[in-house]
Amino acid sequence: MWAMILKEFLELRRDKRTMAMIIVLPLLLLVIFGYAANFRVDSIKTEVVGPSASRVAAQLKAPFDVTEVEAGATESQAEDALRRGEVGVAVVTTASSTTSIALIDGSQLFTAESAVAATQESGGLLKPQILFNPTLKTSWVMVPALVGLIMAFIGTLVTAMGLVRERQTGTLEQLAVMPFRPSDVIVGKIAPYFVLAAVDLILVTVLGTLLFGVPFAGNVLVFALGSALFLFVVLGLGVLISTVSQTQGQAMQMALMTVMPQVLLSGMIFPLAAMAPGVRWIGYILPLTYFNMISNGIMLRDAPFTSLLLPLGVLAGMAALVFTAAVLRFRRDLAPSMPKPAKQAATPAGAAS
Amino acid sequence: MTRPGSDTDGWGTFGVTIVRGGATALKDVTLAAPRGQVSAVVGGDGAGKTTLLRALVGRILPVSGRISAPPTERCGFMPTGASGVWQDLSVNENFDFVAAAHHLSGGALADRRTDLLEQAGLTGAADRLAGDLSGGMRQKLAFCLAILHRPDLLVLDEPSTGVDPVSRVDLWRLIAKAAAEHTAVVMATTYLDEAERASTCLVLDRGVALAHGAPDKILASTPGTLTSGDAPTGDPELSWRRGRQTRSWHPGPPHPGEQPIGADMEDCVIALTLAEQQAGAA
């Protein structure tokens, strides 16, 4: 039995990825659930408009964080600010009434719930009116995020596994000696996963709208552009993972290590606004965070294209960076091995035979 | 360095040195691969056989020496362990994929496929998944895929290792036919009876060429003295079992009263390796 235990420890010690998982995962989960797992939003960006804007703004307490006061702005302009995602609440005041209407962005579920609760405790100062998701249905918020999660899953995990299978069975070596250009092999390997992920994207979006009544308020083309950029990022991650994995098990480990933080820290489950700043920045380097901004904005709020330029630009940058790195590494696998300086050039040693 | 060459240049590796993982895997190794001939590379584990073949098909670059081979599309490569077969594709689908890579289609592909499947005894398995085939059948499929486009240079890495004797006969028939069709065949093998059937043979040990030439010339150059008996006649470290007999070897000419025997390729390779080790120790 001791021999068995010793052998297991020896194998574990040499399996650096599993060891890293054993050490990193508990720390990661501790940090995430300690600092990020918070559904209560304590600060909501708020715009106050209308004739009594200054007076009402002075009366607003936490969680309302008044970022803009525009006495001359109209309700329609306030609604546009919500649509652009600039604020979570827009308070519309009138000259005659002491009660103002608080327009609440229902596409930010937990922010909206906090805002509704705060209006009820405002002593009649605010009357809530929820836009974009009037009944605050969880499914309406989850479906746009789920679209991204499924693409991340297929793009990263399934792609990495599929590419590593070629290496594991030795056929990657065979492809390298066949009369294919490296670009033929790379495009040929990635295109099917791109198509499959795109089909899943359409399927989930259509089924989500049909089964759960999730609206698709915005521009389909912008949604397609965001999805394509996001797909390039996650496919690139899958290819990158495949180039540093020798087995499908290793690829799965690494892919899960990239997908799991995206599930927990992209704002899909826990609102980014409620996370501690020390953890929130992690969310802002994850591609799913930006896809969520796009899909949520387009499907629920009909967010204008200009308001999505930031997430689209970030995804484009990520796609260029990750995909280029992935292609370069994959090309290296297909290229002949370069000679490395010999430690003992004069003394021949055993070769792979 | 690797460069596409014509067969008039003579294909092969010429004075090639390869460094892998900081150690010299091959040192100044020359292997000619003439058209219409089978050139065998033999040697023990870690001798450098696979490294040499991978260098020949352009997968490893040498630090010095010259490699001459046809362009990629005129080479056929069968990696070791039938790993050149896509196991989740059927036999026919494997053929289709490799044929597409070589722009083979239509009647030419159909005829070639029928011919190869028949020769390899795989006709009845054409619709089976490659992963479901026996080891020997997979090896034969890998061979068929390597030769599908009638390459000028065919490189085979231990094509018959782990294959049953009947499948080995089939494989050899296919190899001989390829050579007869004017293909230059280079194959690594651990079966020394196969090496004796080749036109030329390269004996490798730890990256160094111990002998290179026609098998009968290599046999004739067996170093030292080889005897056979029921027990070791000298240093047990220099003896080995062959069937019910024990071979004994020592450097230099026969001792008085010794009855030397002629070496076959297996004895010869062992004698060459022992002689090299003794020379290294000295």
What does this structure look like?
The complex is a heterodimer of chains A (353) and B (282). Chain A is of the alpha/beta class. Chain A folds into 2 domains: 44-131, no CATH class; 138-337, no CATH class. Chain A contains 13 helices and 6 strands. In chain A, strand 1, helix 3 and strand 2 (64-70) form a beta-alpha-beta unit. Chain A starts with a helix and ends in a 5-residue tail after the last strand. Chain B has 2 domains: 3-215, Rossmann fold, CATH 3.40.50; 216-281, no CATH class. Chain B is 33% helix and 28% strand. Chain B has helices at residues 49-56, 91-101, 106-120, 135-147, 165-180, 192-197, 215-220, 265-281, and strands spanning 2-4, 11-20, 23-33, 38-43, 64-69, 75-78, 153-157, 184-189, 200-205, 208-213, 225-229, 239-242, 245-250. Chain B has a 6-stranded mixed sheet with strand order 6-7-8-4-9-10, sandwiched between helices. In chain B, strands 1-5-2-3 form a 4-stranded mixed sheet, with helices on one face. In chain B, helix 4 packs parallel to helix 5 (165-180). Chain A binds chain B through residues 169-171, 173-174, 176-180, 336-353, and chain B through 2, 18-27, 43-51, 57-63, 72-73, 75, 77, 79, 81, 83-87, 98, 101-102, 188, 206-208. Chain A: It is a multi-pass membrane protein. Chain A: This is ABC transporter permease. Chain A: It comes from Catenulispora subtropica. Chain A: InterPro entries: ABC-2_transporter_component, ABC2_TM, ABC2_TM_bact-type.
Quick recap of the structure?
Chain A is an alpha/beta fold. Chain A has helices at 2-14, 16-36, 53-59, 75-83, 109-120, 138-168, 171-176, 182-212, 220-243, 248-265, 277-283, 287-301, 309-334, and strands spanning 44-49, 64-70, 89-92, 100-105, 126-131, 344-348. With 282 residues, chain B is an alpha/beta fold.
What attributes characterize this protein structure?
heterodimer, A: 353 residues, alpha/beta, 5-stranded mixed sheet, 13 helices, 62% helix, 10% strand, B: 282 residues, Rossmann fold, 2 domains, 6-stranded mixed sheet, 8 helices, 13 strands
